[in-house]
Specification:
The complex is a heterodimer of chains A (about 900) and B (about 90). Chain A has about 900 residues and is mostly helical. Chain A has a 5-stranded mixed beta sheet. Chain A has a two-stranded antiparallel sheet with strand order 1-2. In chain A, strands 3-5 form a two-stranded antiparallel ribbon. In chain A, a hairpin with a 2-residue loop joins strand 1 (about 480) and strand 2. Chain B has about 90 residues and is mainly α. Chain B has helices at about 10-35, 50-80. Helices cover about 65% and strands about 0% of the residues of chain B. The chains are: A mainly alpha (about 900), B mainly alpha (about 90). The interface of A and B includes residues 79, 234, 241, 279 and 533 of A.
């Protein structure tokens, strides 16, 4: 027998092990070394959260009571997966293309990014999942109880309620730690998924081990088992046709619509080809999970005393044979089933709650204007609180229902609840005529019927609904009795509710869809969903050209995606448009891509609302709709070729235009410089000549001579510096510079540069923000040259930053084998039309030569960085002038080729 | 006897389309086979035989898995080569 404290220890060790797995995997995934972690095997195993504790323990009890009917729970998903080419493939493709974050997001996105629909679906999912989570807590508590009852020594079992509380709290911690690390739901929770795959292996191995023990140790092999089945009370069973077909259908529907299944199936999918493997591997897993259910049930019924709970045979059977280790394994299997389900379900629900309820509320509560503050933190906080909230709800439900046996039926009730999404979902991906009003009406009807006929009665007669309602109907209306709607009596309550809810749901969904008229956004989305495999027609654009300011878009994107990701995305889009820098033109294509990217973080409806705010309303013309309707399909093909050629031309033209503008400006600058340089050279020359003439005349007091000599000397130094700069630049440009490579500490280098630049406008007190630990990087580079660049940037900030309380931020990051150094001040920054020019020679923003240089500083910086194998660029949208330097961690050898 | 080269040149494409058809038909066939036990209901006072029904269900189940595994290979390659490929209607 197993002492209770040993059991607790085993649980804690197991959870710690899972923590470790998730942690290590996250680490490796961050380092980009986790290809195998995203294999079809892990994907298939993660799908096994379909098998919860309810199926792990409950299937045996189910089999003991109703024979083979338990298998329907697995047969439905088998059919869905075997038929992946129909539905799953399309769902996954849509999910990836639209960057869907949850099932509510999918439905809301399909029906014109309607948030109302998102809220309704979210609420249904929370309603249906709460009792299910309670069921998991109950199963863990019950299995604890089995060990506590059998072991008399060790700790006494604390009351079941506190066990459940501890379990819920532990799960909340794990989920928050690993489930809300990334904001982008499409960046996927590699750590969690791998931990869940590990748990999937544990539960399969546990159930198979118990099954093999039962069949080959307790009985004499399969033949004996068949004989035992024939000789037991289970020899004959009643197949109720309506339940057999209905439950198969129900489980098939649930495997697509359960939020947690949608999460692992669609959102966490990293490669469509994995689905092909899962199409047979997941049914195989289910087969493995149910293979020994019947033998365990029949042997349990024979061996165990009458009255023993068949739901716990998986545990009690090995215990009764003195197989403590096997029972322990079975216990961990059940524990795994419960925890993995709860973790994924709460992640999925939390994403839905934060994206469809918290974010829209927050967006509508605050005044209109640019997006303030750090939205990421808000969303993450909302998500963390939602996870705690969902688990809290489950716990409250558990303690209110008192862990009654009535909970066991809740699994199927929960299935029927989420199945209400099925018509809207399938209609959405196969039928372009499905409308938002139809979906909303259908889902609400189905939900209402489900609540009235199944959910509320599940609390028992007299629980929520008074007994009189069951017998005579509400207000004495007989045809509204919850178990006999419209006078159809005598059906199994579950099938009755499923039949009526889905029938009414589908009828109302289709008829309202036929009668109502969709909005343009809906039609566009409908087309994109239904024709997802047809790229010609699936790429509509809903945005008008050119109203949005790219810099404002960047600022918004940074607050949602994070600085690096947003900048990377903008840079990549700019490259696609054939532009340099971080600011692409606000073309419809770009706005569309940006919206989808944001949708991956905050959901389609919110992303759409945020972009509308900056870009104006989406405008779709009748011509667009006709094009999308495919009524001009032949023209489309021809015109798409022209289109791509035209795009190519536009891109080239844009590049040429930019180059031309740059050239013109440079030519103007060069002229300006020539006069400037002659002026710069002449002024000192003139004074040198004048003062030397005075000196030649002689006959002066010595202090005057010294004074004039000093002036001559200073002017000569100024001349030399100017010539030095010019010389330096030409050496750098030719690539003939000798680099003095050695190992240097970046932090010290920055210290030195700050000190060296301190003499520039020393009266200004700068607040310098640095992250010292991040700066502890040893670089192999030319420290003097790098210092020169740093000094130049810091001096520029000191010279030009016009803020009342000037601040300087130096951010150092290591990315792959490269180091990124950002130097950011809080001044007014550099206007957009000048950003492309500042690195050119002799460029100066202000015409007044108050800075006292010849405008060569940044040009030199750029050449130095190129010689150091890196680059320097202006970083827009940082609330001030900001420069980003990128350079390799280890510069191998001096580059001799001419830098571009 | 030498095998004649097919008149129909797009033989491979044709084969792939039929494999897709098979993949679409598989769940229909599976659903039919799973529902079949309803039809052979016992007559009179006899009860169903759990053991043989169970064996039937598991054999059909395994058959579906094997068929799906065989079909998944060419279909996966197709997903591979044409990531944005057509539906083949």
């Amino acid at each position: 027998m197993m002492p209770f404290n040993l059991l607790v220890l085993a649980c804690v060790t197991y959870v710690a092990f899972l923590f470790l797995v998730a942690f290590v995997v996250e680490r490796r995934a961050a380092a980009g070394a986790a290809r195998w972690l995203r294999s079809p095997l892990v994907y298939t195993l993660s799908l096994s959260i379909y098998c919860t504790a309810w199926t792990f323990y409950g299937a045996v009890g189910y089999a003991a009571r109703s024979g083979l009917e338990f298998a329907t729970i697995y047969l439905g998903p088998t059919l869905v997966f075997v038929g992946w080419w129909w539905v799953l493939r399309k769902l996954v493709r849509i999910g990836r293309q639209q960057r869907v974050t949850s099932i509510a997001d999918m439905v809301s996105s399909r029906y014109g990014k309607s948030n109302t629909l998102g809220v309704v679906v979210t609420l249904i999912c929370v309603c249906a999942a709460t009792p299910y989570i309670a069921l998991q807590l109950q199963s863990v508590t019950l299995s604890f109880g089995v060990f506590a009852a059998s072991g008399t020594y060790g700790w006494a079992l604390p009351d079941t309620n506190s066990t459940a509380l501890w379990v819920a709290a532990g799960l909340a911690l794990f989920t928050i730690l690993f489930g809300t690390r990334n904001l982008d739901a499409n960046e996927q929770h590699t750590g969690v998924v791998t931990a869940i795959a590990v748990e999937a292996v544990v539960k399969l191995v546990a159930l198979l081990a118990v099954g093999i023990f039962v069949v080959w140790v307790m009985a004499d092999g399969p033949a004996d088992i068949i004989a035992r089945i024939n000789g037991s009370a289970m020899a004959g069973w009643d197949l109720v046709p309506s339940r057999w077909a209905g439950l198969t259908f129900l489980s098939a529907a649930a495997v697509i619509t359960l939020p947690r299944m949608f999460q692992v199936l669609v959102v966490e999918n990293s490669d469509e080809r994995h689905l092909a493997t899962a199409s047979w591997a997941f049914p195989l897993y289910l087969l493995g999970m149910s293979l020994f259910v019947l033998p365990i049930a029949v042997v349990g019924l024979q061996v165990m005393p009458t009255g023993a709970n068949p739901d716990l045979f998986v545990l009690t059977l090995p215990l009764s044979q003195g197989q403590g280790a096997l029972a322990m394994l079975a216990f961990l299997g059940g524990f795994s089933s419960a925890t993995s389900m709860v973790i994924v379900a709460s992640i999925a629900l939390a994403t839905m709650v934060s994206n469809h309820i918290v974010m829209p509320l927050w967006l509508s509560l605050r005044a209109t204007g640019p997006v303030p503050g750090d939205v990421r933190r808000l969303v993450l906080l909302a998500r963390r609180l939602s996870i705690a909230g969902v688990l809290g709800l489950g716990y409250i439900y558990y303690s209110l229902s008192g862990g009654s046996a009535a909970l066991a039926a809740i699994g199927l009730i929960s299935f029927a609840g989420v199945a209400q999404m099925l018509p809207a979902m399938l209609g959405g991906i196969f039928w372009r005529g499905a409308t938002r009003h139809g979906a909303l009406a259908g889902v609400l009807t189905g939900f209402a019927v489900w609540t009235y006929c199944l959910f509320l009665p599940s609390f028992g007669p007299g629980g929520v609904l008074p007994i009189s309602v069951f017998l005579q109907g509400p207000f004495g209306i007989g045809w509204l009795r919850p178990y006999a709607l419209f006078g159809v009596a005598g059906m199994d309550p579950l099938i009755h509710a499923l039949f009526w809810s889905l029938t009414l749901n589908t009828t109302i969904f289709t008829s309202v869809s036929l009668l109502s008229f969709p909005s343009p956004v809906e039609r566009v989305q409908g087309l994109a969903f239904v024709n997802v495999f047809d790229p010609e027609r699936a790429e509509p654009q809903g945005w008008a050209q050119g109203k949005a300011e790219p810099e404002a878009l960047l600022v918004m994107a940074q607050r949602i995606l994070g600085d690096d990701t947003a900048l990377g995305f903008f840079e990549q889009q700019a490259v696609l448009q054939g532009k340099d820098g971080y600011l692409p033109d606000p073309t419809p294509e770009f706005l569309d891509a940006l919206e989808r990217r944001l949708a991956g973080s905050v959901g389609a409806a919110t992303a759409h609302a945020m972009i509308s705010e900056l870009a104006g309303r989406a405008r779709i013309t009748v011509a667009d709709l006709m094009r999308m309707a495919g009524e001009t399909a032949q023209i489309v093909e021809h015109s798409s070729q022209l289109e791509s050629q035209r795009e190519e031309l536009t891109r080239t033209a844009r590049q040429l235009r930019e180059a031309n503008a740059k050239l013109t400006q440079i030519s103007v600058q060069k002229d300006a410089f020539l006069s400037q340089i002659s002026h710069e050279l002449r002024t000192p020359m003139t004074s040198i000549r004048a003062f030397s003439e005075i000196l030649m005349e002689g006959d002066m007091p010595p202090e005057m001579i010294a004074h004039y000599a000093r002036i001559i000397n200073e002017e000569a130094i100024r001349l030399t510096r100017l010539l030095d700069d010019l010389l330096d630049l030409s050496v750098l440009e030719n690539g003939t510079v000798q680099l003095n490579l050695k190992l240097a500490n970046l932090s010290e280098l920055i210290d030195r540069s700050l000190r060296a630049a301190g003499h520039i406008r020393p009266e200004r007190r700068f607040i310098v923000q640095r992250d010292l630990p991040a700066e502890q990087i040893f670089l192999r580079t030319d420290p003097d040259r790098l210092g020169q660049v740093l000094i130049n940037l810091i001096s520029n900030a000191r010279k030009y930053c016009d803020a009342a309380r000037p601040e300087l931020r130096i951010v150092v990051r290591q990315r792959g084998g490269r180091v990124v150094i950002d130097v950011i001040d809080n001044g007014s920054g550099i206007p957009r039309n000048k950003q492309a020019l500042i690195f050119e020679k002799f460029a100066r923003l202000t015409d007044q030569s108050r800075a006292g240089g010849a405008g060569l500083g940044l040009a030199i910086c750029r050449e130095i960085m190129a010689n150091l194998g890196g680059s320097i660029g202006y970083l827009p949208g940082q609330g001030g002038a900001a420069f980003r330097m990128t350079l390799p961690l280890r510069l191998e050898k001096p580059q001799n080729e001419v830098a571009a | 006897m030498k095998r004649r080269s097919p008149v129909f040149l797009a033989r491979r494409g044709y084969r792939l389309r039929r494999i897709r058809d098979a993949a679409r038909l598989l769940p229909v066939a599976g659903g039919f086979l799973f529902l079949l036990p309803i039809l052979w209901g016992p007559s009179g006072n006899e009860r169903r035989v759990t053991a043989s029904d169970g064996i039937y269900i598991f054999i059909v189940w395994l058959g579906l898995i094997v068929a799906a595994a065989l079909l998944s290979r060419p279909l996966r390659e197709e997903t591979d080569t044409a990531p944005a490929g057509g539906d083949g209607r």
